[in-house]
Amino acid sequence: MINYSNIFVNEGLSYSAYRNLVSSLLENHQTTGEDHSEAMLHYSKMNVQRMNRVDKTVSLNEELVQTLDSVKKKYRLLVISEGWCGDAAQLLPLFQKIVDLAPELFDLRVVLRDHNLPLIDAHLTNGGRAIPKLLVIDEEGGLVTEWGPRPDVLQQLLNVWKTENSDMFVLAEMLHHWYAKDKTQTTQKELVSVFKNLEQLV
Question: Which of 105, 109, 124, 146 has the most crowded CB, counting CB atoms within 10 A?
Fold first, then answer.
């Protein structure tokens, strides 16, 4: 049985600590996980730029702000990620903005997928270890709900793109073009549903 509270407290990194870890590893020509190939280093470097951009340019929309204002209980947001993961780079800053809006209600910690295989294996997507995964935990340490690894509409598009193209660099470009055009609005809409349902799920 997964002890979410133990993982959150003892293994979780704050968003800033996660950012610092990714950057410090890159200075030593490494990324998180075991694969330090040029491709993975390239992804991680690009992801630092993406997180910087989302940090600076994205704000929570009115519907999500109102939804978060209606939350009554405290929750922990545990995110499974890796520095080389492009989706995580697009989404983690958004999760942190939720905490920044209501730090009295939400706390965020990031754990690395490959250091926590039993955790990700309990939250597979179509049988795969897709990340990021947002796990919402209540004050008692119980899992309330989960979301990820990406918005549903993008997941469906990616499934189609994969049937048409097997080049991972091309697929990554298409993925990030979608994120840049969407400006997190689709993700925010899905998160409205996630947080609206919290009180009924507890």
Answer: 109
Task: List pLDDT tens digits, range 108-125.
Answer: 999 999 999 999 999 999
Query: Is-above-0.70 flag for pTM?
Result: yes
In angstroms, what is the C-alpha Rg of the chain?
A: 16
d(CA 34, CA 31): 8
Query: What CATH number is associated with residue 30?
Result: 3.40.30.10
Q: Is residue 164 part of a domain?
A: no
pLDDT tens-digit series, residues 6-38: 999 999 999 999 999 999 999 999 999 999 999
Selection from 151, 199, 179, 186 nearest residue 63 by Cα: 186
- Residue 174 CB contacts under 8 Å (≥ 6 apart), including other chains: 161, 165
How many other β-carbons are positioned within 10 Å of the β-carbon of residue 11?
15
Secondary structure (3-state) at 192 = helix
What does the mean pLDDT of the chain come to?
Answer: 95
Tokens of 168: 């991972």
Instruction: Give the span between the Cα atoms of 137 and 139, in whole angstroms.
Output: 7
